[in-house]
Amino acid sequence: MGFFQPGDVALRREVLHGKPWSVTPTRVVLDGPGLLVVFTPPGAVFGFPPHHRAHHWQARGRTHWRGVGKLQLHRPGDAYSVDLYWGGDGRFKGWYLNLQDPFRRTALGFDTLDHALDYWAPVDGDWEELDRDEFEEQVAEGKYTAGQAGAIRATGEEVAAMLTAGTTWWDPAWAAWRPDPDWPVPALPAGWADYPLP
């Protein structure tokens, strides 16, 4: 599969237990051999294919992305994305390291699976770990195998060590990025619920 072009719509699909779980349309900012960057704007509508386990956003009645949009940086092979958040006043707030499956390209975007365990590195202040209890609850409920849970914990330790050492790899200049004002909110295309797994 080739790379996406800036402005293309790429579907970020979560796949749980071999079945599509949720789909979010994003706008491609940059795509190349070493980095995939996508933007989820306010109003982007979520899709929830039929699944034996309801997605947590679906269970909470969330139908679309709310608040300020987020930018996501993905390196091939990394079991996390680096998400950038801005406040309502447009000021950059910090870096959110979202543990997830390494992304896998599809015909319409990319597949992954959120792992609940996250790390927040604000512009001012120390980093912190988030949602450890939620992650461990999901392990107990069978969302992950024992092997997967161990790998996720190991990734968390690597991320924590990186943040402590200050050896982050991403370019801080991304904090100054702003979306193209002419970009419409991306929509779910026809067939979004049943396109095949790679």
UniProtKB/TrEMBL annotation:
Gene3D superfamilies in the cross-refs: FomD-like
Alphabetized UniProt keyword annotations: Hydrolase
UniProt cross-references to Pfam families, sorted A to Z: DUF402
InterPro entries: DUF402, FomD-like_sf, Ntdp-like
Keyword Transmembrane helix: no
Domain DUF402 intervals: 56-166
Protein name: DUF402 domain-containing protein
Organism per entry: Saccharothrix lopnurensis
